[in-house]
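Each lists chain and fold; for instance:
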Amino acid sequence: MGFMAAVALVLGIGYVVVVFIVEPLRLRRRTGASGWVASLGATTAEKTASAMFLLGCGLELSNPALVLAGFALPRVDFPVAVAVAGAGLSVASVVLAAVSQHHMGQSWRTSIDPDNAAPLVTTGPFQVVRNPTYTSLLANSLAIGLLVPTPAALAAFLVCLWALQLQTRRVEEPHLRRVHGEDYQRYARQVGRFLPTIGRVSGFGR
C-alpha cells in the first residue's frame, strides 16, 4: 500500500504541476497570456464551486500522503491490476488535459472573464465532450482512488464532481449561452458535458 500511495501522490502532484503551471507557462509563451484570471467579481456559485474543488483536491492529495505517513486508513483491497489501471488512467488524464488546453489556446482560463469573451472551441477533444479538461480532472481523481482505495478517495471524487457540476451548470454554461447564443446551444445539444452523449442539453437552463 505504501508504494501505491507514493505513486498516487507523485501522479497527483504531477497532474497539478502540468495542468496549472507547465501548460499555462507554455500558453503564455505562445499567446502572451497564461489563462490565470482573478475571479474578483465571482458569483456565490463560482466561489462555492472553487472552494469545494479545492477541498476535493486537498482530500485527493492528502489521502496517499496520510497513508505514507503511517495512518491506518480503512481501505478496499483491489487486485494489483486495478492499481496499474489507475496509474495508466492518471497518465492518460494528464495527456487529455494538456491536449485540451492546447486546443483551447487563449480560451483556456481559470475563471470566467466577463470583459474578454473567448471563442467557442469545438475541435479536438471538444468534439467528444464539452469539458474535456474537467473530464481529465475527474479521471485523475478516480485514478488516485484506484491506487489508494479509501473512503477519503471516494469523498474526494464526489466533492470534485459536485464542484465541477456546479461550476459548469451554474457559472460557465450560462456565460457561454449569453456570449455565443444559439451556436453554444446547438453544440450543447450534440455533445455531452463530461462524457460522450451524457449531459447533452435540450433547452436553456438545464
